[in-house]
Write a structure and sequence with these properties.
This protein has 187 residues and is mainly α. The protein contains five helices and no strands. The longest helix is centred in the N-terminal third of the chain and has 52 residues.
Length: 187
Amino acid sequence: MIVADNRASALSTDTRVCAESIMVVRIWRFFTLLLAALALTMDSAHLLELPQKMQYDAQMYSAVNTTLYRYFAVIGGMYQVGSIVAAVLLVFLVHKRGPSFRWTLAGALCLLLAFGIWLAVVAPVNREVTAAFRAAPASVPALWMRLRLRWEYGHVVGFIVQFVGLCALVLSVLVETPKDLPPERTA
């Protein structure tokens, strides 16, 4: 009788730990997907503005870019870095889950790559414009015209990679969704 009670107690503890583990993964997935979606909004905004902004003259383009995006780096940066950190931690949480792990890893790598693209393509333009704005503000419109394609299309490429990353993270959830509904229980 004591052996049966110990087995039942161990089974109960294992079931509780498993349920808690599943809940932690679900909550972490929610926050990862939320942050990844919010991070995507920054580059999505750039993508939607692109056709109109490419028609602006130097003065208008400079005025828009030096005033409109001040908080994109602060807020967008928190979203993007937060989504990367959350996705990398999620990779470790699902590392034994086969297809879900692979999709999660792909999503995390895409988010990291998108950030790398921003660092390599967009950030240097931001630094150069900021330096020019401090040293010779009158030179900024011409500088923006020279660097505009790099800055704009850097955001487009970042959007595409981030979008693929978000899709991979969503797929990581879908591959674990049961294909069939469980049979209904009858009382």
